[in-house]
Amino acid sequence: RLAKFMRTEEAIIYSYGFATIASAIPAYSKRGDIIFVDEAACFSIQKGLQASRSFIKYFKHNDMEDLERLLKEQEIEDQK
């Protein structure tokens, strides 16, 4: 019913925030993916990232220049 109401193919409801974050990240990412994340991410995000088994690259908190640096480094690495 929820999916129909939301006009989507599927829908899911979680009982609380931690479960949502900790399970959604590994559901949409997989081993071998690269995820760029703020080093100040909350505990539930960290747990979700850990469960995803992806490559995690942390940038300095709210520092878009550091994120850009990491993205450029990754671009160079991808071209090898």
Structural commentary:
One of its GO terms (molecular function) is serine C-palmitoyltransferase activity. With 80 residues, the chain is an alpha+beta fold. It has a single domain, classed as Alpha-D-Glucose-1,6-Bisphosphate, Chain A, domain 3 (3-Layer(aba) Sandwich), CATH 3.40.120. The chain is built from four helices and two strands; from the N terminus they run H-H-E-H-E-H. It has helices spanning 2-6, 17-28, 43-52, 64-78; strands at 34-38, 55-59. A two-stranded parallel sheet has the order 1-2. Strand 1 (34-38), helix 3 (43-52) and strand 2 (55-59) form a beta-alpha-beta unit. Helix 2 packs parallel to helix 3 (43-52). The radius of gyration is 16 Å and the shape is elongated.
- What topology, given as strand order, has the largest sheet? 1-2
Largest sheet: 2 strands, parallel
Cα end-to-end separation: 48 Å
In the CATH scheme, the class would be Alpha Beta
CATH topology: Alpha-D-Glucose-1,6-Bisphosphate, Chain A, domain 3
Domain module count: 1
H/I helix tally: 4
Morphology:
elongated
At CATH level 2, the architecture is: 3-Layer(aba) Sandwich
Low-confidence blocks of residues: none
